[in-house]
Design a protein that fits this description.
With 250 residues, the chain is α+β, with helices and mostly antiparallel strands. It is built from six helices and 13 strands. Strand 3 and strand 4 form a beta hairpin.
Length: 250
Amino acid sequence: MVRLSPGLPLPRWPALLLAIAWMLLLALLPWWIDLPLLLALAAARLAHAEHAFARAHDLRRALRWGLPGLLLSLLRMLGSDPRAWVLVLLAALAGFSLLMLLEGWLVRGHRRGPAQPSPEWSELAMAPVGPAPAIIELQPPDWHDVDDRLADPRGGELRRDGHALVLADGTRLDGVAPRCCFDPDARWLAVPLAPRRGLLLLDRRRGRLHRLRGWQLCGWHAGLPWLQRGGDRAPLALPHVLGHDEDGTG
């Protein structure tokens, strides 16, 4: 059983049959007709070196299949004696070597393309590396104790119910400490989890609840809470925290 390598495409039979027919045609014609035809194809190949890639591919195929036709025509004229075979083999070596040199020269010229001026080394040395630094100033959190009731910046009051906080709209936050913090826009409500297990964040605009165990609120910036886990680590914005560690959302 013959197995084809997955990296090799299957031959296109119409193009292959056309190439074989072209080779047989040149084998039947006299060599002094074949040679000008191949030289004309080589000149056309040079003319289409920078554009018309589909036509250049056809010209390459015509040259590769036309050269064996020329050699067969030459062998048919010289006969089948050993001297004729030596001359044909030498012609084949020269012809295929010229084809390889032609293709190699065209490929190198296409890859090289027009020369681009390179920047001076001083410009490269003084060029900035990486994005421009940005200074982030966090607004520290303002914690409020909820002894019994606490005014809500969005209206109504928060009230304490055992180990839970109840918002004016009836939202109940269980397992939290009697403390809370609002961001400057009153979008976020932060409440510590009891006893010191992390932080509960309520996105009041989207109605999402995040329970983040082991995280502490460092402050607010650009409408987002910035959190920290451990005193020696840099604070992170909430989207980075949610991609790193989230206990649950609601």
